[in-house]
Amino acid sequence: MLVTETSQAMALREADRLRREFVSLVSHELRTPLATIRGYAETVMSRPWSEEIRQECLENISTGCERLTELVDNLLDISSLEKGTLRIEPEPLFLPDLVSRIVYAERQNRARPPEIVIRFPQEFPIVQADPKRIEQVLHNLIDNAVKYSAQGEPITVSGEVRTDRKTVVVRVEDRGMGIPPECLTRVFERFYRVSTQETAGIEGSGLGLAICKGIIERHGGQIWANSSLGHGSVFSFSLPLDPDTKPNGNEA
Amino acid sequence: MKTILVVEDDRRLARLVELNLTAAGYNIVVYHDGDGALAYLQTNCPDLVLLDLMLPTVTGWDLLQYIQEVERLAQIPILAISALAQPEEQQRTLATGATAYLVKPFGINQLFNSVESLLGSPNET
């Protein structure tokens, strides 16, 4: 009995610690785009700048607003997942096309485009999935791969059909810093972030992977990670292939 | 002209500071990581360092410590700029050797006031 109470108390304390850590992380994450928006807005009004610099300021304000919107969206997604009301709208989806589109956008949107290799078999089946949500997952995994790798380290996005032909698996593989084994089981937890000397300064709210896990599980799939410290990580997710397979719990 | 070393990994914020302080008449040197700043400090002695704290690999606190330890650099005023808003973080940073602490998001006037109070106006000697 005593043991149960102690472990419950420990779990509560841990939950409370994570919540407090989350509040300070969110505060930090909100402050960075806010600093961009406030700073450039005040700058553009402060002097008769050249047209070129005015344009640069306005673009930065716009980007800051996008980052802030993304963060607020993530917070809403987490809240929906907790309440079980996250909407999934499945439709026939050809994953290789979606991956190409996301990778193209990644290359366009970054000042120093990452090297991303796409590997899908020539014939790949169509799955039933929500394109926007799967895009969100892939975007998140690729973004993490870029964030936790050094400049120039290649990232591979690949797909395969499992031999039982009931599931497809998509993997995002990097050759970055990797994840310590003791952290690997926790990376999909809400608010959890790997904290090592190497990850210091890398921004994140600890929400992305928790949202990915929620989305994939709502599709009836699974998500998991493998990693070798110092050599890179592989994040994989599976999606059921049988068109009759109903997405997991789409009652909302 | 007074030289300010700006160490900030967020490129937009680094550019924001550079744009405003250059227009105000300071000479600005920007590094987006601690390693670059460390290499710069080995052969240069700026008049002020504007330092973000959460930097990859060599952090702002590492740089703070380095500057304190090198006699040639120890007198340089350091303005820490961070999104870490908790009083504990500010106290820890000031205790490590920062002269002042500016929390993001900061106003342009706050930036000018902090820099001027630590350094004097751009052309003062």
Write the topology of this structure.
The complex is a heterodimer of chains A (252) and B (125).
Chain A: H1 2-46, H2 51-83, E1 91-93, H3 95-109, E2 116-119, E3 127-129, H4 131-147, E4 155-161, E5 167-173, H5 181-184, H6 208-218, E6 223-228, E7 232-240
Parallel strand pairs in A: 2-4
Antiparallel strand pairs in A: 1-3, 4-5, 5-7, 6-7
Helix pairs in contact in A: 1-2, 2-6, 3-4, 4-6
Chain B: E1 3-7, H1 11-23, E2 27-31, H2 34-43, E3 48-52, H3 60-69, E4 78-82, H4 87-96, E5 100-103, H5 108-119
Parallel strand pairs in B: 1-2, 1-3, 3-4, 4-5
Bulk shape of chain A: globular
- Strand order of the biggest β-sheet of chain B: 2-1-3-4-5
Helix and strand composition category of chain A: alpha+beta
Low-pLDDT stretches of chain A are 245-252
How many separate helices of chain A?
Answer: 6
> What gross morphology of chain B would you assign?
globular
Q: What does this molecule look like?
A:
Chain A is of the alpha+beta class and 252 residues long. Helix content of chain A is 50%, strand content 15%. In chain A, a hairpin with a 5-residue loop joins β4 and β5. Residues 245-252 of chain A have low confidence and may be disordered. With 125 residues, chain B is an alpha/beta fold. Chain B has a 5-stranded parallel β-sheet with strand order 2-1-3-4-5, with helices on both faces. The A-B interface holds A 24, 27-29, 31-32, 34-40, 42-43, 46-47, 53, 56, 60, 63-64, 111, 197-198, 200-203 and B 9-13, 15-16, 19-20, 23, 54-57, 59, 83-86, 103-109.
